[in-house]
Design brief:
The protein has 213 residues and is an alpha/beta fold. It has helices at 15-29, 54-65, 87-101, 116-129, 157-168, 171-175, 183-195, and strands at residues 5-12, 33-40, 73-75, 105-108, 134-138, 151-155, 201-209. The chain contains seven helices and seven strands. The longest helix is centred in the N-terminal third of the chain and has 15 residues, at 15-29. Bound molecules: zinc ion.
């Protein structure tokens, strides 16, 4: 299947970088057309002393650093942990993006992700794109009881460097010392997924739909 238009769905600003930052780097190297949507920017973890727009600024610096133009990303302002109350609005956003961007591939959170906002985006993603696009789900191990490693994207060392560089823009998240926001963790999971397919590095995905044209 030829994949040109790739839609990336991120419930909160840093989810896609953590789940599929290496794949985003690879796809950009390959010249694919990316459209990236963040649904909420007020992460509950934001330390009190930081301005409320900190995560907007951090996310914007990630996409700018990657060379994305304004038309390649969208930041929505749904309230964190309350996405459940906005399921219809989330769906309507996704349907509009489907009609305008026409993604070949949609990458979003897993149905096995237990964060309530991630669950909403995962479900509405499937509702919106089930008949139009291939759909895969990225891995955020701290949110899963189980995760099916059905699909792998092979990564080059430069993709891991790029993923780390994306993460270092999130100074607010580095400040709260999350275990998964470390170089050790990123290299460890990429190396683990690589070992499953005989490669140095990879990211793994669950497959909801895979279309071959
Ligand atoms: Zn999140």
């Amino acid at each position: 299947m030829e994949v040109n238009n790739v839609l990336i769905l991120s419930p909160h600003t840093d989810d896609a970088e953590l789940g599929c930052g290496g794949t985003i780097s690879k796809f950009l190297r390959e010249g694919k057309n990316i459209f990236w949507v963040a649904f909420s920017t007020a992460e509950e973890s934001l330390p009190n002393h930081l301005p409320k727009d900190t995560l907007v600024k951090e996310f914007t610096s990630v996409v700018k650093d990657l060379g994305l133009k304004d038309e390649n990303y969208k930041i929505l302002n749904f309230p964190v942990r309350k996405l459940t109350n906005f399921r219809q609005e989330v769906l309507e956003e996704l349907v509009e993006i489907r009609n305008q961007f026409k993604p070949d591939l949609v990458i979003g959170p897993s149905l096995n992700d237990f964060h309530q906002d991630h669950t909403v985006v995962a479900n509405e993603m499937i509702r919106a794109f089930k008949t139009s696009s291939s759909i895969i789900c990225y891995e955020l191990p701290w949110n899963h009881i189980k995760f099916d490693t059905q699909m792998f994207v092979e990564l080059e060392p430069e993709d891991i460097e790029s993923k780390l560089k994306m993460m270092w823009h999130y100074k607010s998240q580095l400040e709260v010392l999350r275990h998964y926001f470390t170089e050790d963790f990123v290299r460890g999971i990429a190396s683990t997924r690589g070992a499953q397919i005989g490669q140095k590095y990879a990211e793994s995905f669950e497959v909801i739909r895979w279309r071959i044209k």
